[in-house]
């Protein structure tokens, strides 16, 4: 295919001119950056307007599947044209056009594999796909109809349901629950009842099911690679039978035991997170709509469970970065659905999703098997089944252990004004006294750095006892930079 067709040059030009954008950010993932110069040249030739600025963005601070609003703001861009794989997460402040690209696929072989595998299957079939293969779906439908008509017993093609791309233009969201802003299609979380049935969606795909039918009633046939988008499907629809057609090598993958094992791993991390005392919130996006609401909701959840919380903004997390905060027993990663799962095996502490945090820190929560990847679906909601509060104990800083009825314990700890002094509670919990009389670390631990330093066996230059330091050495200020001794008053 020609470059202009793959990168949809004409549609991009129409998008820019129809909205009168004069500063356009072109966001490329690393694997497509090699084509950026040719794309810019093709756009300039079509635009024929020297007043329109085109700026190439690469090396995004977070996942390349999300629109980099922070990078675009540095050049005062009016819009972003996002190239390559996209999670279609809603933006907060800037409109975007998503160009998915057009990966090569043998449509005849794909249709034949789909028909052959489902011939003996009694369930209806729901066809999902990676967005890079959206351009071929109509041809696959036609090939499927043609192949089915040649069989002795013609397969009912009406039993095949194809998902559709929700929308390739993202407008800024006006509220956390509105994924793509006004004037676009319904959000991926919509389960909208209508005269004909209900609407479902995931990862930028949407489809309608007849009234009375559920996704679990269908065999899911995924066309595409074994990437984050497919992993999202496997976890979200873990109760469905799923097969995958590898479009690059033209073969069918029916054994998904490795993907199913991921769910067991996530459940293990939820159980491990329940024992955490200090929790870190990792900001994994600065552009996806509703991320601030989700961070605040996580803070309220953690403090309500009697635990200490820190918030970190560090770009893409890696083991070396998180190892700087060993006092955190678990981290919550607030990011888009397709970058939310981090393999915690290499990390010092588990890294979980907001949904898993709700399971771990909501007292009385019980995992019903449902799994939610997109944090927008969780804002101001609790997708877990509530049980009697007395059935599960929670850790309390006030009591120094697990208690059966934390609410009654909190009532006891209220001060004279009837307000829970949460700051005093957490300060009590972190009040570590160093027994070494020569140590500079004494008193209350006021930060994560203090906690880390207090656990070290060496705290810096220590000469004799506090009262036996030779006079020549007592020069200047003594203590730590965060609070010298003469500043304590």
UniProtKB/TrEMBL annotation:
Functional pathway: Protein modification; peptidyl-diphthamide biosynthesis
Q: Which UniProt keywords apply?
A: Iron, Iron-sulfur, Metal-binding
Return the InterPro entries for the record: DHP2 (IPR010014), DPH1/DPH2 (IPR016435), DPH1/DPH2_1 (IPR042263), DPH1/DPH2_3 (IPR042265)
Question: Where is region (Disordered) located?
Answer: 173-192
Known cofactor(s): [4Fe-4S] cluster
Q: Where is the composition biased (Low complexity)?
A: 173-183
Instruction: Please give the biological process terms from Gene Ontology that the record holds.
Output: protein histidyl modification to diphthamide
Task: Offer an example of a GO molecular function term for this protein.
Answer: 2-(3-amino-3-carboxypropyl)histidine synthase activity
Name the Gene3D superfamilies for this protein.
Diphthamide synthesis DPH1/DPH2 domain 1, Diphthamide synthesis DPH1/DPH2 domain 3
Q: Which Pfam families match?
A: Diphthamide_syn
- List the residue ranges forming a coiled coil, or say none: none
User: What does it do?
Assistant: Required for the first step of diphthamide biosynthesis, a post-translational modification of histidine which occurs in elongation factor 2. DPH1 and DPH2 transfer a 3-amino-3-carboxypropyl (ACP) group from S-adenosyl-L-methionine (SAM) to a histidine residue, the reaction is assisted by a reduction system comprising DPH3 and a NADH-dependent reductase. Facilitates the reduction of the catalytic iron-sulfur cluster found in the DPH1 subunit.
As for family, the record states: Belongs to the DPH1/DPH2 family. DPH2 subfamily.
This chain's protein is named 2-(3-amino-3-carboxypropyl)histidine synthase subunit 2
- State the organism named in the record: Turnera subulata
């Amino acid at each position: 295919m020609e470059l202009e067709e793959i990168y949809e040059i004409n549609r991009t030009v129409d998008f820019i001119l129809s909205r009168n954008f004069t500063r356009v950010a072109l966001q490329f993932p690393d694997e497509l950056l090699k084509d950026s110069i040719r794309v810019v040249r093709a756009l300039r030739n079509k635009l024929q307007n020297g007043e329109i600025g085109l700026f190439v963005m690469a090396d995004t601070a977070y996942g390349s599947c999300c629109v980099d609003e922070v990078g675009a703001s540095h050049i005062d861009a009016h819009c972003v044209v996002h190239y390559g794989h996209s999670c279609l997460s809603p933006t907060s402040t800037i409109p975007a056009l998503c160009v998915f690209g057009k990966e090569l696929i043998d449509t005849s072989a794909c249709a034949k594999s789909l028909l052959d595998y489902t011939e003996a299957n009694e369930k209806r079939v729901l066809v999902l796909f990676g967005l890079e293969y959206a351009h071929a779906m109509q041809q696959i439908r036609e090939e499927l109809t043609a192949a089915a008509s040649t069989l002795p017993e013609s397969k009912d093609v009406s039993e095949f349901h194809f998902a559709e791309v929700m929308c390739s233009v993202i407008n800024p969201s006006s509220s956390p629950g509105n994924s793509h802003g006004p004037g676009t299609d319904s959000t991926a979380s919509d389960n909208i009842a209508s005269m004909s049935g209900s609407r479902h969606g995931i990862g930028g795909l949407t489809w309608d099911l007849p009234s009375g039918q559920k996704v679990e009633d269908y065999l899911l046939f995924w066309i595409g690679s074994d990437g984050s988008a497919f992993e999202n499907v496997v976890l979200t629809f873990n109760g469905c039978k799923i097969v995958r057609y590898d479009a690059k090598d033209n073969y069918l993958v029916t054994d998904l035991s490795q993907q199913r094992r991921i769910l067991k791993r996530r459940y293990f991390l939820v159980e491990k997170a329940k024992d955490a005392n200090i929790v870190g919130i990792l900001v994994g996006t600065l552009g996806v709509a509703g991320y601030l609401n989700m961070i605040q909701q996580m803070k309220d959840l953690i403090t309500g469970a009697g635990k200490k919380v820190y918030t970190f903004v560090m770009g893409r997390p890696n083991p070396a970065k998180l190892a700087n905060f060993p006092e955190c027993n678990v981290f919550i990663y607030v990011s888009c659905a397709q970058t939310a799962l981090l393999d915690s095996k290499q990390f010092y502490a588990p890294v979980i999703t907001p949904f898993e945090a709700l399971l771990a820190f909501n007292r009385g929560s019980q995992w019903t098997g449902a799994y939610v990847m997109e944090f927008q679906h969780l804002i101001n909601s609790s997708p877990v089944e509530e049980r009697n509060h007395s059935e599960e104990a929670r850790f309390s800083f006030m009591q120094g252990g697990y208690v059966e009825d934390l609410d009654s314990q909190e009532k006891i700890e209220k001060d004279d004004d009837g307000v829970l002094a949460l700051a005093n509670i957490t300060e009590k919990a972190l009040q570590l006294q160093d027994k070494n009389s020569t140590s500079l670390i004494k008193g209350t631990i006021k930060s994560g750095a203090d906690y880390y330093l207090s656990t070290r066996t060496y705290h810096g230059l220590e000469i004799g006892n506090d009262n036996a330091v030779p006079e020549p050495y007592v020069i200047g200020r003594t203590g730590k930079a965060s609070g010298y001794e003469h500043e304590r008053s």
